[in-house]
Amino acid sequence: ANEKESFIKECVSSAMENGQTRSVSERYCDCMLVKIESLYPDINDAAKLTEEDVTRIMGKYKDGCLE
């Protein structure tokens, strides 16, 4: 749970720094969290992801999360 909260917090902050509103940022980050969880259902595998891994995944799957 702490990892999820940390991911959402960092993601929302980053998205807002890039000009998105809080509500758009939250929807996008919630969507990305679901995508990452579906790719890495084992929390131990997800915990091994580097920041670069997460950035790569988000770049690949962002279209499905941006409206």
Describe the protein.
The model has no long low-confidence stretch (mean pLDDT 91). This protein has 67 residues and is an all-alpha fold. The protein contains four helices and no strands. It starts with a helix and ends in a 6-residue tail after the last helix.
List keywords for this structure.
67 residues; mainly alpha; 4 helices; globular
The share of residues in extended strands comes to under 5%
Order of helices and strands: HHHH
| Global morphology | globular
Proportion of residues in helical segments:
over 70%
Architecture blueprint of SSEs:
Elements: H1 2-17, H2 22-39, H3 43-47, H4 51-61
Helix pairs in contact: 1-2
Quick overview:
The protein is an all-alpha fold. It contains 4 helices and no strands. The protein has helices at 2-17, 22-39, 43-47, 51-61.
